[in-house]
Amino acid sequence: MVRAIVGANWGDEGKGKITDMLGEKSDIIVRFQGGSNAGHTIINEYGKFALHLLPSGVFYQHTTCVIGNGVALNIPYLQREIDDIVSQGVPKPHILVSDRAQILMPYHIDFDAYEEERLGGKAFGSTKSGIAPFYSDKYAKIGFQVSELFDEDTLKEKVVRIAEQKNILLEHMYHKPLIDPDELLETLHEYRDIVKPYVADVSLFLNNAIKEGKTILLEGQLGTLKDPDFGIYPMVTSSSTLASYGAIGAGIPCYEIKDIITVVKAYSSAVGGGEFVSEIFGKEADELRRRGGDGGEFGATTGRPRRMGWFDAVASRYGVRMQGATEVALTVLDVLGYLDEIPVCVGYEIDGEVTKDFPVTSQLKKAKPVYETLPGWKEDIRGITEYDKLPENCRKYIEFIEKELGVPITMVSNGPGRHEIIYR
Ligand code: GDP
Predict the structure, then answer these.
(1) How far is the CA of 40 from the centre of ligand 1 (A)?
(2) Quick one: which of 382, 289, 329 has its CA closest to 17?
(3) Which residue has its alpha carbon closest to ligand 1 atom 28?
(4) What's this model's pTM, rounded to 2 decimal places?
(5) Nearest CA among 167, 116, 126, 161 for reference residue 143
(6) DSSP for 344-367, written as a single string
(7) Are 383 and 419 in contact, with CB atoms under 8 Å apart?
(8) Whole-angstrom Cα distance, residue 276 to residue 54?
(9) Over the range 384-395, which residues count as b (16 or more CB within 10 Å of their CB) and which as e?
(10) Which among 30, 145, 194, 247 has most CB atoms closer than 10 A?
(11) How sure is the predictor about 300, in pLDDT bands with cuts at 50, 70 and 90?
């Protein structure tokens, strides 16, 4: 049985916590896209962790954690994250890395920073993890596949060819230090030695596991609105954030993904630039940011303050639809307990007309939020474990959102801890 867990919004919906929870019941947990550019925050008996590249299943001994072919594999980062969790008392996790995953190179990180520097005020607000240069190279067919690390002749020829090409840009466009092919080859040898114990034919492994009836969890990063096709292009990430891409980024048949749990946040937050119709500012935003998440809404990777907003039913319904959600997990609901009334964005006004359908970016730029206001519940709902015990206005808020989404909300998260969840 394959399940996917993905985000409906701008990311940071609290997927890490839900994944960690579901991971407990899974045999295999797979990362299928992205790289170390986003982060999950996980709180468990070992402590509090911000995972960037490792799948959330690394805390369990009964799970195999897989880095699929769709991931941007930063090898020293992988090593560091493994060392980090082990040094905090977590038993050494079982990890497999796809032989078809491509390697995020040191120059991808450099190019990411150089390009943001060159763009100055027009920068994308990249996390500078090298993700955009990495995927550009992958599709330009000048990337390094993990399997190539074990083919010395290819490697030797390729470092010269790549250095030649990259050095033209480094010298003439960015005026930065050049790549030395011998040094690059040495780096790749180090990478080979680090990654060797984990390398496997992941697609074959997963297909066999499906046949054996194993429970597999595909773990998405970011959310629908950061998808390069369906998100707020160009302020998006460089690999697909959709559950469908899980089939490609892991190497399994798409019809095997039976359950798509889509995480929706009870209010909105976003890191980096881009369209955000229900964004709020000033004191109102500061208060929500301060109370949000677990100790405030600040980026797990960058520490940047997140942009804040009210729940956006237009964006979230679209987010859920593009994921193909079979069920929804609504998170951080406890945070809203301080409000007398809660605005919910139920439509976008564009050129004098109200729409409930999420439009393309050029239209989105003109959209103004249309709000409906719901009464607050003015109560701390943490610690409640049964749906019926929630305050009436809180249930009404959940049911209002469910109606707007058109997909059943099966889980409500009312605290950052792993077991702070209400099943419906
Ligand atoms: P992800 O990228 O989707 O995994 O999101 P994050 O890991 O950045 O999660 C956002 C933050 O919200 C983290 O600090 C979580 O610990 C916290 N969090 C998750 N679920 C809840 C919840 O239901 N209530 C509260 N208060 N915090 C939560």
Answers:
(1) 8
(2) 329
(3) 416
(4) 0.94
(5) 161
(6) EEEEEEETTEEE-S---HHHHTT-
(7) no
(8) 29
(9) beeeeebeebbb
(10) 30
(11) low
Residues 390, 387: Cα–Cα separation, whole Å: 6
Report in angstroms the alpha-carbon separations of 305 from 233, 278, 285, 318, 334: 22, 17, 11, 25, 20
Angstrom distance (rounded) from CA 355 to CA 370 = 9
Tokens of 253: 């048949």
User: Three-state SS across 319-336?
Assistant: HHHHHCCCEEEEECHHHH
Taking phi over 0 as left and psi of -120 to 50 as alpha, with beta for the rest, 345 belongs to beta
User: Quick check: is 334 catalytic?
Assistant: no
Which residues, judged by CB distance below 6 Å to any ligand atom, belong to the binding site of ligand 1?
7, 11-17, 38, 40-41, 43, 293-294, 300, 331-332, 334-335, 413-416
Q: Determine the average pLDDT of the residues in 42-58.
A: 85
pLDDT in tens, 225-281: 999 999 999 999 999 999 999 999 999 999 999 999 999 999 999 988 899 999 999
DSSP 8-state code for residue 62 = T
First to last CA, the chain: 22
pLDDT in tens, 82-115: 999 999 999 999 999 999 999 999 999 999 999 9
Rg of the chain over all Cα atoms, to the nearest angstrom: 22
108 C-alpha to ligand 1 centroid (Å): 29
Sheet containing strand 2-7, edge to edge, reads: 199-200, 94-98, 64-67, 28-31, 216-223, 2-7, 257-265, 327-331, 409-413, 421-423
The structure tokens listed for 343 are: 């605005």
Ligand 1: centre distance to CA 149 (Å): 37
